Amino acid sequence: MPRANQIFRKARKALHDLDLLKILQSEITHELSSTRFQSDESGCSRDFVVEHDSPKSQDVVLRRKLESGEEVAVSALSGPLRFGREGAFPREILMKICVSKPGVGSILQFDCGVSEDHHGGSPFKIYNAYYLQSSANLGSSVYRGPFFSSLDPRLQDALKDYLISRGVEESLTNFLLLHVHKKEQGQYLNWLQNLESLVAKGQPNEL
Fold first, then answer.
1. 34, 40, 66, 180: which sits with the fewest CB atoms below 10 Å from its CB?
2. What is the pLDDT of residue 70?
């Protein structure tokens, strides 16, 4: 009787694994046939160079050096899913932009968001703007400035124009929107294939 129970458990597990394998293969086929993020990916705008784009990381880092010596670094990754909103891109892209000047230890940091629904307005939203002394030990008690939304609207527009003049324009944000979504889709497909391989190792039937 114990032997029969053992065989029954193995048989049930084999059937469960076979169902899981079929579901995984179906999802892989769907992802491979998907054209959601297959548009032609234009290059980075205004001399930005991709500095970091590991297939194992979520983010991509770009950098641009202006003729004045000023540097603009952009780090971007996908934000949370936007449920209930239609469009080609299910996530907002979160950008962290740092602007530094040669010989100056401090930097300007902007926390921004990029989505496809700007409708001809600014290609990004600024959520926070900070003046940071890079050499300082920044703790939670350090004052980082007021909420961006509380600033004078003219100052908000001026800060957006400041970033646009340094290359953070629509061609760059469109590149990031497509590139980060494609990267996430590739990582998801790779995860599915690894899981399929793991489940498939239990096939054929282990009875």
1. 40
2. 94
